[in-house]
Specification:
Blueprint lengths: L3 E6 L11 E8 L4 H8 L6 E4 L10 E9 L4 E5 L4 E7 L4 H10 L24 E2 L2 E2 L4 E8 L4 E6 L18 E11 L9 H7 L7 H15 L7 E5 L5 E3 H10 L5 E3 L5 E4 L1 H7 L6 E2 L2 E3 L6 E4 L5 H19 L11
Parallel strand pairs: 2-4, 3-4
Antiparallel strand pairs: 1-2, 5-6, 6-11, 7-8, 9-10, 9-11, 12-18, 13-15, 14-15, 16-17, 17-18
Bound molecules: uridine-diphosphate-2(N-acetylglucosaminyl) butyric acid.
Length: 335
């Protein structure tokens, strides 16, 4: 039986804490509800699936239906080899899930500790941090297709993962119900990311738990806690630009951090550095600001709405463009 609520306040359900009211809202807690939701979906002008709300720019009024994915449950399957197949329902809190995996000797996700949000959102934007992307450990993703009213399993390859992107991102009718991970039973620590390498060097025989603790400490030292200050993590993608342009920039700015991509013609550059180098770190305007410890993070200090935030972001985008001729793209999604 579906309960659809009207005029629901989403301000506490998005980590930027943008003022937002949804005209219609439903809590998805059981797979059995999906057919019923699919049957009524065309009655609404639009819809989107809400997870942890940590990568969203919500409008002041969302005139459609919000489906709040709160599906729960985790299973660990020993597939008899060197791996465990771990299936987590989409509404599980991502960081609780990471901790649960480590407690069950299923490794690999420790670098992704403390990322806000839910398991269901993790493949959509291919979350990544400190040298690991979630795609490295996803076996398959199970979605419910709201248009054909069927469950569909998408293999890792079918998900077409790339930097902060996947096939799922462009398929709003795919509601992620669970994600199945293939996690090694023996930890193989990934500690080649600058800050992390240095800190882990101080620990003898480090374990996955040590790495998780190190990642958590690093994140806490640089990134604001959404429970305290509204934010959506990195607000812009690290831009991927032509290798030729990156080389020119590197000559102008030898300190600019650059990263190779799978395509030799393209280089990823640090958006945080580009913004920081313009002296914008810590800048504040009205309710909004650039976080003083990480220039890639925009923060909502008070009660900003979407329009104010976009205006503020545009100011940064145009300064970056004028100075470096690089277009910064906004990472969080506007439903
Ligand atoms: N930097 C500065 N000033 C800044 C910020 C960064 O100079 O204000 C330079 C520094 O040289 C630093 C380098 O940029 O060493 C990289 O910074 P950081 O390690 O903080 O990583 P990032 O590239 O800014 C990306 C992800 C983060 C992820 C970190 C760590 C994106 C858009 N962001 O940020 O992900 O935690 O790497 O792996 O790719 C997120 O997506 O929400 C997120 C937080």
């Amino acid at each position: 039986m579906l309960t659809i609520q009207n005029s629901v306040n989403l301000t506490q359900l998005n980590t930027l804490h943008l003022n937002s009211i949804a005209n219609h809202y439903i809590q998805l807690t059981a797979l059995e509800q999906l057919d019923e939701i699919a049957a009524v979906i065309n009655n609404y002008s639009r819809y989107f699936v809400l997870g942890g709300g940590s990568n969203l720019i919500l409008p002041e009024n969302y005139d459609g239906l919000v489906i709040h994915n709160q599906l729960k449950g985790v299973t660990f399957d020993n597939d008899g080899s060197d791996y465990k197949l771990v299936t987590a329902a989409a509404g599980e809190i991502w960081d609780d899930f990471v901790a649960n995996c480590l407690e069950n000797q299923a490794y690999g996700l420790e670098n992704l500790s403390l990322i806000p949000g839910t398991v269901g959102a993790s493949p959509v934007q291919n979350i990544g941090a400190y040298g690991v992307e979630v795609k490295d450990f996803i076996d398959y993703v199970t979605v419910y297709d709201l248009t054909i009213r069927k469950f569909v399993k998408l293999s890792n390859v079918e998900c077409q993962f790339s930097y902060r992107n996947s096939y799922l991102k462009n398929k709003p009718q795919y509601l992620v119900t669970s994600v199945t991970f293939k996690l090694p039973k023996k930890a193989k620590l990934m500690i080649s990311y600058g800050d992390i390498t240095k800190q882990m060097a101080n620990i003898d025989n480090p374990t996955a738990d040590d790495l998780r603790a190190c990642i958590i400490a690093t994140r806490r030292s640089k990134l604001p806690d959404p429970a305290e200050i509204g934010n959506a993590g990195s607000f812009f993608h690290n831009p991927i630009i032509a290798a030729v342009q990156a080389q020119e920039l590197k000559q102008r700015f030898p300190d600019l951090p650059i990263y190779p991509t799978t395509n030799a013609e393209q280089i990823k550059v640090s958006a945080g550095w580009l913004i920081d180098n313009l002296g914008l770190k810590g800048m504040r305007s009205g309710n909004l600001g650039v976080y003083p410890k990480q220039a890639l993070v925009l923060v909502n200090y008070a009660r900003a709405n979407k329009d104010e935030l976009i205006e503020f972001a545009k100011g940064i985008q145009s300064k970056v463009y004028e100075f470096y001729q690089i277009q910064l793209n906004i990472e969080p999604i506007t439903p």
